[in-house]
Amino acid sequence: MSENGSAAKEHAGRVREMFGSIAKRYDLLNHLLSGNVDKRWRRIVAKRVREKLPSSSSRILDVACGTGDLSLTLFEITGAGVVGTDFCRPMLAIAAGKTSGRVRLIEGDALDLPFRDGTFDVVTIAFGLRNLANVESGLAELARVLKPGGWVAVLEFSRPANAMLRPLFNLYFRKLLPWMGGLISGSRSAYTYLPASVQKFPDQSQLSLLMEQSGLDQVGYENLTGGIAALHMGRRPG
Ligand SMILES: C[S@@+](CC[C@H](N)C(=O)[O-])C[C@H]1O[C@@H](n2cnc3c(N)ncnc32)[C@H](O)[C@@H]1O
User: Fold this and answer.
1) Mean per-residue pLDDT for 8-26?
2) Are 41 and 204 spatial neighbours (Cβ–Cβ below 8 Å)?
3) How far, in Å, from the CA of 164 to the mean position of ligand 1?
4) Rounded mean pLDDT of the chain?
5) In 58-86, which positions are buried (b, 16+ CB within 10 angstroms) versus exposed (e)?
């Protein structure tokens, strides 16, 4: 295996283990640390996805679905068939309990999805792209499993657009959140990893560019809660 390949494998192993260790507290912490705003963000994603679906018999793939919150919201708001995939079994086990058969769950790696080319009408990934060993390869893989004319939706933390909001947000995200997250989950490292990974992740314009470079067109984004998060969408030409 190449040096890059083994570094990517090591990264994936660390990420899988980290999510496995916080799986049981993941939902509680998401809702608590965001003041439930995360639920609103997922509903916005599902509504935008509904606008892009060709019919109610469309198929959606939710990559890095974790405990299944977005998968379930997509199912409830769009009425489409939803498949959720993730490589962390403890996260998928919680998703299985919550979705009770309404979403099909399949264990899989976002960088090597277990689906044929052109299978889905929409592919979503929420707070997942940032965790991949390689963002560009991740985007290419999402585009691969999309039907021509289908849409990718990426929900991720981003950069607050408002200069006044930025220092406040940084204080919360880099200091308070790791402390609270560590206390409640028992894994401080998982919640110091969160702000560190967001800092390294491309901002709104850089991510738009990467999506275009991965062959998507009509790329655009919507800032959520002043740019704390952003929803990027792009279409596979065809
Ligand atoms: C922050 S959680 C997001 C979960 C969910 N999408 C949500 O909105 O709450 C990130 C998820 O990405 C998954 N993940 C990270 N890298 C992955 C990969 N290479 N393949 C599949 N899943 C991956 C983790 O296991 C974890 O469940």
Assistant:
1) 95
2) no
3) 31
4) 94
5) bbbbbbbbbbbbbbbbbbebbebbbbbbb
Strand order in the sheet with 104-107: 104-107, 81-86, 59-63, 120-126, 146-157, 229-235, 217-224
CA 66 – ligand 1 centroid, Å: 5
Nearest residue to 15 (alpha-carbon basis) of 136, 189, 143? 189
Q: Which residues line ligand 1 (CB under 6 A)?
A: 12, 15-16, 19, 64-66, 69-70, 86-88, 91, 109-111, 126-128, 131-132
Atom number in ligand 1 closest to CA 27: 9
182-209 average pLDDT score: 92
Cα-to-centroid distance, 33 and ligand 1 (Å): 18
The ligand 1 atom at the shortest distance from the C-alpha of residue 88 is 25
Whether 94 shows a pLDDT value over 90: the answer reads yes
Residue 231, CA atoms < 13 Å, CB-side half-sphere: 19
- The token pair at 109 is 């790696």
pTM for the predicted model, two decimal places: 0.96
> What confidence category does residue 188 fall into, taking pLDDT thresholds of 50, 70 and 90?
confident
Q: DSSP assignment, residue 113? A: -
